[in-house]
Amino acid sequence: MSRKVLIAGNWKMNGLLEDGAALAKEVATEVKKLGKPECEFLVCPPFTLLTTVKKVLRGSKVALGAQDCHVAEKGAHTGDISPVMLKDCGCSYVIVGHSERRADHKESNELICRKAEAAHQAGLKAIICIGETEAERDAGKTIEVCTKQIMGSVPQNATAANTVIAYEPVWAIGTGKTPTTADVEEVHAAVRKVLAKKLGKGNANKMRILYGGSMKPANAAALLALPDVDGGLIGGASLKAADFMAIAASVNKK
Ligand code: 13P
């Protein structure tokens, strides 16, 4: 089953206009040099940079995504951004249910599911994040937690065309710690099984499952070579074009 690898940068709450534009330009320039890249590229800047970055990326093979969306199309939701607005400013992807939003904004699986549905409705692809905390891993509950998150936060009508899953162990995010490759493959294979149960085997086999959590040039090749790892959702290392591109360069032919 060939799934095109997705190398996605989640810039989180980083970047002012000037450096955000410069970073996007560097990534676009490097991707252009690849000619026909083996993988797909995506950057997800903060809301304030979307329009600027879109302009910089025009004509390039780098897609634009946002880091969250509201469930409604429009209305009285002060401070929120709708998926229709994201589509309007050039996004094709939106991340939903990142562990930082689950923690900081108490987002539930049910809300994340509605966000993913709203994203689909607006014509966006949803990157739905799941992952266990350190305490959950220590208690041997990783698969159980991820299963529950998938069952609750992936919409019933999700397809490989409109949805990407990102497995991000919470304890690996921004810490420099990563699970062993055997542990990553075990979780990704289990995630695909749960997706098959929920969405059918056809969808599950085609759906991309990204790994996220301290992915760096030094560990990317080993992680991206795993059979059920279909790309990376990269935080810190996506803020340096050289590191982001070095990760992409380690994509093995699948
Ligand atoms: P780091 O790559 O900084 O660990 O972040 C991963 C992440 O949370 C991407 O969404």
Q: Care to describe what's here?
A:
Strand 1 (6-10), helix 1 (17-33) and strand 2 form a beta-alpha-beta unit. This protein is 43% helix and 15% strand. It has helices at 17-33, 50-57, 83-88, 99-104, 109-121, 134-138, 142-153, 181-199, 201-206, 217-224, 241-249; strands spanning 6-10, 40-44, 62-66, 93-96, 125-130, 163-167, 208-212, 231-234. The protein has eleven helices and eight strands. With 254 residues, the chain is α/β, with parallel strands linked by helices. It has a single domain (5-37, 45-248), classed as Aldolase class I (TIM Barrel), CATH 3.20.20.70. It binds 1,3-dihydroxyacetonephosphate. The site of 1,3-dihydroxyacetonephosphate (13P) has 14 residues, from strand 8.
Keywords:
15% strand, TIM Barrel, binds 1,3-dihydroxyacetonephosphate, 8-stranded parallel β-barrel, alpha/beta, globular, 254 residues
